[in-house]
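Task: encode each sequence below as structure tokens.

Item 1
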Amino acid sequence: MPVTVITRTSCSSSRRAVAWLQDNDIPHIKRTSSESPLSFDEVLKLLIRCEHGFLDILSVRGRAYASLKDSLANLQLNDLIAKIVEDPSLLRYPIIMDGEKVLVGFNRSEIRKFTPSDKRKADLRQSLFSAEAYA
């Protein structure tokens, strides 16, 4: 299953994530939040997969978040998801996911979890052979 990357056009972390996937030959589908925003169900699935829920996905440094900050505590789950669908700038980017794994934001060590296991094994073997050559 290819990895889906949801990006924001002006986001340097999104560009780095896409470049990393390309450099590592990982099949992926790129979506931009402006052309293909997340649906209500997609946001809900994203929340289910995130360890800390909204804390993991909300862009707390953005203007959209600042305008909502005071009313967040009073919003019901469905209302907050609807706000995210209405205004995708509330989210952190990139959002990288496959059938079961998710990563919000770009982290060079965490993005490796999207590398297929056979490629990880081959890379490990190569590293071991290289280490033996220097031993």
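Item 2
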Amino acid sequence: MYFRLLHEELRRSAMRAVAALLAVPEVERSPSMSEFANMIRSNADMTSIYQSVQGGDGAGLGPAEGMDLS
């Protein structure tokens, strides 16, 4: 159980780092960051973690801000 909690905290910490990178002005010009943001959008678990560290609805996920969560 302890390792599971550590794993979850590591995932949240990594997603906070990603959120900071995606907040950099003009990040949409980076194809690799754009691809990474798309990867987050396409994975429900990653999207959920991203939203929890942002405290919101997934806004700010890079170039294609209008993420459909349905």
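Check on item 2: The chain has one domain: 2-54. Residues 2-54 form one domain.
End of task.
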